[in-house]
Predict the structure of DUF6325 family protein.
Amino acid sequence: MTTPTDVLGPIDFVLLEFPKDRLTGETSAAIKDLVENGTIRIYDLMVISKDEDGSVTELDLATAAPGTAGFDFFAGARSHLLDENDLRQAAETLKPNTVAALIVFENSWAVPFVAAARNSGGELIASTRIPAADLMATLESLDHTTSAGA
């Protein structure tokens, strides 16, 4: 019998880009809450800055000043699944004068579900992620279609 300690939840990789002049710490606080309540488990988190001239630096979370955009909480989040090549590829996609968080995390909320499915002989045969913006646009389009026909 598979127990939740024998399985992992789905693993996601995200790259979030922010204009440097709009950093509030709100996003890092939300991620911290997700970690603290067990919704996700962070495997890797890199913070990357791209200057106006295109130069790129990685913020060292272990030496970041306390409270630096709220990312000091994540100083130990390095499993080394992400490497310099990932950093370089992420930096190539960033716009100048931005800061980005490159994150690999486990959806730990799903562990009991995954264990139950495995115990029942279930196997994942397909998976995809629908971006929230795409879903919202589709729902808005459907709403306009429904409203126009009413």
